[in-house]
Amino acid sequence: MLPITDNRKGIGKIKKSIDKPLKTESSAEKWPPHLTVACVIEKEGKYLMVEERDKTSGEMVFNQPAGHVEPDESLTQAALRETLEETGWNIELTGVLDIALYCAPTNGVTYYRTTFLAVAVHCAKNAVLDPDIHAVHWLDYDAIVTRSARMRSPLALKVIEKQRQGICYPLDLISHP
After folding, report:
1. Is residue 18 pLDDT above 50, yes or no?
2. Which of 38, 55, 68, 99 is deepest in the core (most CB within 10 A)?
3. Is 7 helix (H, G, I), strand (E, B) or coil?
4. pLDDT reading at 156 higher than 60
5. Residues of the domain holding 135
């Protein structure tokens, strides 16, 4: 609630702040947010990571297998598809690790990201990877920390640290009617 004042200058200041739009044109252009998924997949102390070129900065960055949810696709279907497309690995989802809201400073886009925990089942023979992926790596935690400045976003390291803490929510946290 705004304070009431008899000071005419104060009333003018309050009115000016009320009349200001809540969103700028540039932030409105970045809406609606992007719905994305990612998977933390750990095998024998190493994490499945992709190396890709950031489309905004042009730099090579690391991330978990991740991507956008497509129309008529569930979050779990998107996670399975993106991991296969980006790494060639078939996986089994075991839990929900994180749900995050992130606004990328490089492009101003807001992302809603659901990160799943998964286990690697098998690598598909003759898999054709997404053309944006330059390499697929199994990296241990120390190697990931060493590359922390080259992560696509702070979420990439944050979710691995959550996995190392044993955080895991059941898959039925997310409903698919």
Report:
1. no
2. 38
3. coil
4. yes
5. 29-171
